[in-house]
Design brief:
Elements lengths: L14 H18 L12 E6 L5 H12 L3 E6 L12 H9 L4 E6 L4 H8 L4 E6 L5 H15 L6 E5 L6 H12 L3 E5 L8 H9 L4 E4 L2 H4 L5 E4 L10 H7 L18 E3 L20 H21 L3
Parallel strand pairs: 1-2, 1-3, 3-4, 5-6, 5-8, 6-7, 8-9
Length: 308
């Protein structure tokens, strides 16, 4: 079902395929925790091409591959590659085919992963393309939510922060809408959810609202998904200054939260989630980061070996 498949956007996956990945991820948790060993991908090589800074995505993909017995070749930044000499992304991808079985690409330009997949004869996974999509982050976010609540269709999810440039929020919003969740998008008007994402969500009939009142949304929220205001994405620094620090979640703001509400964040955080929340029952962002390993293990195994 997934063998040999490119994963560029969350809509590349059917609902059945998403469920298959999440179920497989659950099986992978003991291996991710080093409680069990696996040689499932022994002899396989992952080409990790990260032309944009990353900590969690790059390390979790590389950990996932190695936990399954595979190997990794890594490029970080364009400085150490022939791109500096003028080599095209298409030729870089064709070169990677010679040395690996699967490519994970992070690139600052939206659409780069789709372009790479078009030129590659081996599977390409999008590790984040500019302000576009981040499908594997969405998968680990869904896994985190399902492990907590099981039935996503009954949940109200509030997504707050940088919704215009936040690629994690784009993919996640579409996926949650497909699964029947209701959504609140909380952001200043200049960085609200883009119209094309809202149109897609509306086309699914998903219940959603736009707001700039984070406090007003918290009491009805089951999952609060905070995001960083991404200075590096703003074409105009003055635009960034106007919204920097727009939302800062602290312990007092959770006074009226549901007992079982969880707080998520794709990380890195700056000051939008106060560290005082870390030891509370609400915090899930570090567990969320760990979940990237079993989810990406599941994805790599299903793409390279299929259903086994």
């Amino acid at each position: 079902m997934l063998k040999g498949k490119d994963i560029v956007a969350i809509n590349d996956l059917s609902q059945d395929e998403i469920e298959r990945i999440l179920n497989k991820a659950r099986e992978m948790v003991p291996i991710a925790r080093a409680e069990k060993k696996s040689r499932l991908l022994e002899g396989r090589i992952l080409a990790s091409f990260f032309f944009e800074p990353s900590t969690r995505t790059r390390l979790s993909f590389e950990t996932a591959m190695q936990r399954l017995g595979g190997s990794v070749i890594t490029v970080t930044g364009q400085e150490g590659t022939s791109i500096i000499k003028g080599e095209t992304l298409a030729d870089t991808v064709r070169m990677a085919e010679c040395f690996s079985d699967i490519i994970v690409l992070r690139h600052p330009r939206e659409g780069a992963a789709r372009l790479a997949a078009g030129f590659s004869n081996i599977p390409v996974i999008n590790g984040g393309d500019g302000a576009g999509q981040h499908p594997t982050q969405t998968l680990l976010d869904l896994f985190t939510i399902k492990e907590e609540f099981n039935d996503i269709s009954k949940l109200h999810v509030t997504i707050a922060g940088d919704l215009k440039y936040g690629r994690t929020t784009h993919s996640l919003s579409v996926a949650l809408s497909r699964m029947g969740a209701s959504l609140s998008f909380v952001a200043p008007p200049t960085i609200q959810m883009p119209d094309h994402i809202l149109d897609e969500i509306s086309g699914m009939g998903a219940d959603h609202e736009l707001s700039s009142d984070l406090m007003g949304c918290i009491p009805k929220t089951d999952v609060l998904y905070m995001t960083r205001i991404q200075k590096e994405r703003f074409p105009d620094f003055e635009e960034y200054i106007k919204v920097a620090g727009a939302f800062r979640l602290d312990l007092d703001m959770l006074e009226n939260a549901k007992k079982g509400m969880i707080v998520m964040h794709p990380l890195p955080r700056v000051d939008e989630v106060h560290p005082d929340i870390d030891p509370t029952e609400h915090a899930r962002y570090f567990q969320q980061a760990f979940n990237g390993v079993p989810v990406r293990m599941a994805l790599l195994s299903l793409i390279l070996e299929g259903d086994i």
